[in-house]
Amino acid sequence: MNFLALSGITGLLAGISLLHWFSKGKSPHMKSLENKHVVITGGSSGIGLAMAEEVLLQGGFVTIISRSSANLQGAVERLVQNVSCHPDRIFSQAADVSNSQAIAQAIHEAFRWKPIDVLICNAGLTRGGSLENQTVEDIDLTIGTNLNGTIYPVHAALSLLKHRSKEHPVSIVFFASLASMFIFYGHSVYTATKYAVKGLAEALKFELMPYNIAVSLVCPGFVATPLLNEVEKDDDNIEVLKVVNLYDHKTAENPRDVAKRVLEGAKKGSYLIAKTNYPGLFLSTVARGFVPAESLGRFWLEMILYFPFRAITVLAQNDYRKAILEHFKRKNK
């Protein structure tokens, strides 16, 4: 078989595969969140609290999980006041997501209250500073919260969600960040956990294909949440962050905007949920992973942009190197 014939057959098969992929799943995974039960870890503040409010506004029921009982009580009061809803639409559970037994109990209690339709693994934190300056306690806390604290709730819920999915669509939403596609300078352990969450989401997307369970991966940039306060504390690296990660606290996204985007994506059954501004489009094009874009237009856009964006990474790396070396010289004068 000559090269042209082989190329033609390969192109034909690729075209058939593309048409097959994009012809599937056009209808929403979930028509609405009305009367749906959404469980949110890290639900007492930030994006988690904003998502809880949005779920209630859309007619759903919500369980919020957090380490602090006091924070949970305050969050429930805020939700009731902001949404003007009855408290019986809100269930709260105090549990540390890094404690497998505690979070499993919280998940089972939530399911006993109402069968879970959407599980959102949102809990996360960071500790700034170079790796050598991190304490072992900070490393364990970051891994325990961001990675184990994502695995444990899903592990506890999976058998229940699979059973639920026989008659109702179910969604699992993983919170990574743009740091799951490109490093978050000065936050190496955080970066490692978010890369791992991305891998977990991609693996489960395929593992759960036999079930009516959609898997979504959320990759926000900088958002005006308590986590951003930790970034602001890292005075040592803030100037480099402005160059490498385009950090500017003034442009941090509102948690409510992220919450709306996440819930709309979950209802559609979208896999990758990221903002389509420059960092989001750039990183999802060069580092989205194996799972292709879910619309033909987005697929071809990423195909067209991939090579120029790859060229930009070469130029950007030179800028990053310059900023990092200048920062190092200033520190060591």
Automatic annotation (TrEMBL):
Residues 36-226 form the Ketoreductase domain. Pfam families: adh_short. GO terms for biological process: 3-keto-sphinganine metabolic process; sphingolipid biosynthetic process. Signal peptide: none annotated. Keywords: Membrane, Transmembrane, Transmembrane helix. The chain crosses the membrane at residues 6-23, 170-188, 208-228. GO terms for cellular component: endoplasmic reticulum membrane. One of its GO terms (molecular function) is 3-dehydrosphinganine reductase activity. SMART domains: PKS_KR. This is Ketoreductase domain-containing protein. It comes from Taxus chinensis. The lineage of its organism: Eukaryota, Viridiplantae, Streptophyta, Embryophyta, Tracheophyta.
